[in-house]
Amino acid sequence: MFAWQYRILLLVTSIMVTVAIQANFERLEQPSGKEYVDYDLRVRKFNRTAVTLNGTISINQIMDNTMIFDSDVFLSRLGNQQFLHSPLHLPSTGLCELVNHVRKEYPLILEDIENFPQSGECPISVRTMYVKDKMFPTEILPTPISAGLWKMIFSSKLNEKVIFELIAIIRISDSF
Length: 176
Fold this sequence. Notes:
Strands 1, 4, 5, 6, 9 and 10 form a six-stranded antiparallel sheet that branches. The longest helix has 19 residues, at 2-20. This protein has three helices and ten strands. By secondary structure, the chain is an alpha+beta fold. Strand 2 (37-45) and strand 3 form a beta hairpin. It has one domain (35-175): Distorted Sandwich (Ganglioside M2 Activator Protein, Chain: A), CATH 2.70.220.
């Protein structure tokens, strides 16, 4: 008798959790590697509550699976730039494998990006991709996620040398 009530409670709780989280881009910067990939992306306020990403991503050299992609994730619970390392991250993998994985598992990330490489396309040719009014897709976030300022450092290595880095800072808040 209590099993169906428990299921309804779980369903309502999971709906409340997914609706209650709001995520916005805070900042995006590229400290190195513009000769390989140039992230000319700007964070801008879209309306009173939403922030979007706009600009271009230019691949300036042919890229293949020999470029190893890595990520680090940090959390500042108070949002005061005092970051602690988080165990969340993407596994180290070749760049083409990463593109295929993201395309398969997180299609919402790539939804509004024009001229993004097709699934299975390797090597990735020289191109310019266009990002227009891209909001952060909260659906990709894991369900038990802490509110605060999240900093993600994405880097790519070629022959054990870091060739480019991208730093994304995202503010996650409860909308209770």
